[in-house]
Write a structure and sequence with these properties.
With 308 residues, the chain is an alpha/beta fold. Helices cover 46% and strands 14% of the residues. Bound molecules: pseudouridine-5'-monophosphate and manganese (II) ion.
Length: 308
């Protein structure tokens, strides 16, 4: 891929040329989602998890106004330490480029960049969705899922969101929500939400087959795979609900909105759970990296019959 605003690492260029399995990883979780130093530890551990499961990790971020696909360890360190990085979604790419800024790519931003580079599989923690605090705060992650043909592995949408409304919007936008070994849409820190997925599939091979069928039908958008957090690290919905309500009330009281809302809620819930939600967040991220690598390998095996 040749584009003046993109820079692929030598490792990713090689993997793309070989047709080897690649997993894209987002970087807003590093710049805005997790505190230091856990953000750097997590970034490294996600990459290792992908490698240990037979795929090449492509962390996607902006450095000096370049869209970078695949980062070196020094670059991961820089991103994790930078205090003034942007949170980059679709509308922010040109901002970051003209200002030669550093930035973390959101789920929407990472889907865009991964797709431009020809990477089909992407692992994140939880996608954005419809917020409770404001009727118009709907993450652009949802629109991107409807427009960009990437398979996104997540642990559901973040529990801080209006989950029924988020699922309604995904349905309206025609985005399949696949439950991995579950009928229930997981709620990020919790395995349960009381809400249904649109299809349950029980193996990476079945998920790869599903994506192949979806895209061979000419569907233009993404496939969302919801992978519940491992039982051991999960926090029950009933324990979390009062803390989410408290954090949400504080956000409204303090007038926090827009791009700052999700980072505020995540860090407040971490304080309220005395660090338990941070542990859960890290566990689910690693769990998603593992499943994404397995799916990428299966999709590779089917590549010859792909239409796109
Ligand atoms: N998953 C996590 N932590 C995060 C995110 C995902 O475990 O911080 C990020 C993703 O980059 C996602 C963003 O796109 O949160 C959602 O932000 P917003 O609600 O402002 O669209
Ligand atoms: Mn938002």
């Amino acid at each position: 891929m040749k584009h003046p605003n993109f820079q692929l690492s030598p490792e990713i260029t090689r993997a793309l040329n070989l047709g080897a399995p690649i997993v894209a990883l987002e970087s807003t979780v590093i710049t805005h989602g997790l505190p230091r130093p856990q953000n750097l530890e997590l970034a490294r551990a996600m990459e290792k998890q992908v490698r240990d499961n037979g795929a090449t990790p492509a962390t996607i971020a902006l450095l000096d106004g370049k869209i970078r696909i695949g980062l070196s360890d020094e670059e991961l360190v820089r991103l994790s330490e930078s205090k003034s990085t942007l949170k980059v979604s679709h509308r922010d790419f040109a901002t970051a480029i003209v200002k030669k800024a550093d930035g973390g790519a959101t789920v929407a931003g990472t889907m865009y960049a991964a797709n431009m580079a020809g990477i089909k599989v992407f692992a994140t923690g939880g996608i954005g969705g419809v917020h409770k605090e404001s009727a118009f705060d709907i993450s652009t992650d949802l629109r991107s899922l409807s427009e960009i043909p990437t398979l996104v592995v997540c642990a559901g949408a973040k529990a801080i969101l209006d989950l029924p409304a988020t699922l309604e919007v995904l349905e309206t936008l025609g985005v399949p929500v696949v439950g991995y070994q579950t009928d229930e849409f997981p709620a990020f820190y919790s395995r349960e939400s009381g809400l249904n997925v649109s299809a349950r599939l029980d193996s990476p091979a079945e998920i790869a087959e599903f994506a192949k069928v979806h895209w061979n039908l000419g569907m233009k958008g993404g496939v969302l795979v919801a992978n519940p957090i491992p039982e051991k690290e999960s926090i029950s919905k009933s324990r979390l609900e009062p803390m989410i309500a408290k954090a949400s009330a504080e956000a409204i009281e303090q007038g926090i909105h827009g791009q700052a809302l999700t980072p505020f809620l995540l860090s407040r819930i971490n304080e309220l759970t005395k660090g338990k939600s941070l542990k859960a967040n890290i566990a689910l991220l690693l769990n998603n990296a593992r499943l994404a690598a397995e799916i990428a390998k299966e999709m590779n095996a089917k590549k010859k019959v792909w239409a796109i």
